[in-house]
């Protein structure tokens, strides 16, 4: 049995009355579906943006409610919404920008650039933690409050561990 003869009996190649369609191929069908999806893309994008905006506004309203009634569970949920929605929107937009603009040969360079960004961000965050720890140590000396001493120790430990991890992890990841 010929493959083309078997495909003639499929419903996609027949019209409502069961007669064979003349002139519509699978490529034309895929092209029509793609054009239909591309024409609806702005409406889909607007709808998704509107839904995320509504979710953010619900988070703001819940946050106000939680602050007025001092409900911890609602405060925790609204904080999660207010932090999560912008991060999710940014992640989705970056994913589509990166996936549609990079080629296969640019992926190793992109990974290297992201790793360098994380290394530099880690070093800058460690320096910031060190300065804040020194400030807390100064407050501890002036005010003699034990909490400032504990916070400064924790910041010094966090800063040194972040520097160590930022320096060691790229070497470990490159060796894998």
* Overall geometry: flat
**Please, how many helices?**
5
Q: Which oligomeric form is depicted?
A: single chain
> Helix content range of the residues, please?
over 70%
Give the topology string: H per helix, E per strand: HHHHH
Fraction in beta strands: under 5%
Present the secondary structure layout.
Elements: H1 3-7, H2 26-69, H3 72-101, H4 107-143, H5 146-175
Protein traits:
176 residues; mainly alpha; 5 helices; 83% helix; flat
Explain what you see.
This protein is mostly helical and 176 residues long. It contains 5 helices and no strands. α2 packs antiparallel against α3 and α4 runs antiparallel to α5. The longest helix is centred in the first third of the chain and has 44 residues, at 26-69. The protein is flat, with a radius of gyration of 28 Å. The two termini are 52 Å apart. The model has no long low-confidence stretch (mean pLDDT 84).
In short:
The chain has 176 residues and is mostly helical. It has 5 helices and no strands.
